[in-house]
Amino acid sequence: MINFNILLINYSTFQYTFVHTNIVYTMKVEEILKTKANLSLPKKVLINLQLTSAQSGSEMMCTLKSFGISVQQFNVLRILRGQGKKPANLSTIQDRMVNKMSNTTRLVDKLIDKKLVDRCVCEENRRKVEIVITEQGLDLLKEIDPKVEELEKKATKNLTEKELEQLNYLLEKLRS
User: Fold this and answer.
1) Cα torsion 146, 170, 14, 159: sign
2) Quick one: what percent of the chain has pLDDT higher than 70?
């Protein structure tokens, strides 16, 4: 049995981590849920996915909050940056959103208010509205990118490159 020197508890993300010099032990699902029930492996996997998603989402939300945008607004900005100079319509943005439940119109309106995107009428089809990222939006992403990369590295620091590739493959397989 290992005697741990530090107990780190993050109540907002349900992460309990014990640290002893270079040894890290993260609690099992049953310990986090404080249950003695014998959980099936599929149930453990899905609960672990939910806990991990909540933790990473909370950390991302805190990081982006200091820049005055939400995770969903950040997602819209990245989609528009990925378009290059080509504008996107609301349908395109909605299709590419990580969270499909987001209200894309409302998100875009808030980004317009912050002068991070512009809305323009399509020249070929006047009924079609197109969205483009502004220079201010691109500048904000340049500022945010290093913080997000740091967050991603921190979140995956306990996994090797091979483990990350394997996990990514398994998650894609699970979603299919």
Assistant:
1) negative
2) 85
* Residue ranges of the chain assigned to CATH 1.10.10.10: 71-145
Contact 131, 109 (CB under 8 A): no
pTM, entire model: 0.77
Cβ neighbours around 77 below 10 Å, total: 22
Place 7 in a pLDDT band, splitting at 50, 70 and 90.
very low
CATH architecture of 71-145: Orthogonal Bundle (1.10)
Query: Looking at this protein, which amino acid is placed at residue 65?
Result: K
How far is CA 173 from its chain centroid?
19
Q: Which of 134, 107, 129, 106 shows the shortest CA–CA distance to 118?
A: 134
The H or E element containing residue 20 is: strand 15-20
Burial code (b: 16+ CB inside 10 Å, e: under 16) for 52-64 equals eeebeebbbeebb
Residue 133 to residues 98, 101, 119, 127, 137, Cα–Cα distance (Å): 18, 22, 9, 20, 6
Handedness of CA 167, 15, 148, 135 (dihedral sign): positive
Neighbouring residues of 80: CB distance < 8 A, sequence distance ≥ 6: 88, 93, 117, 131, 132, 133, 137
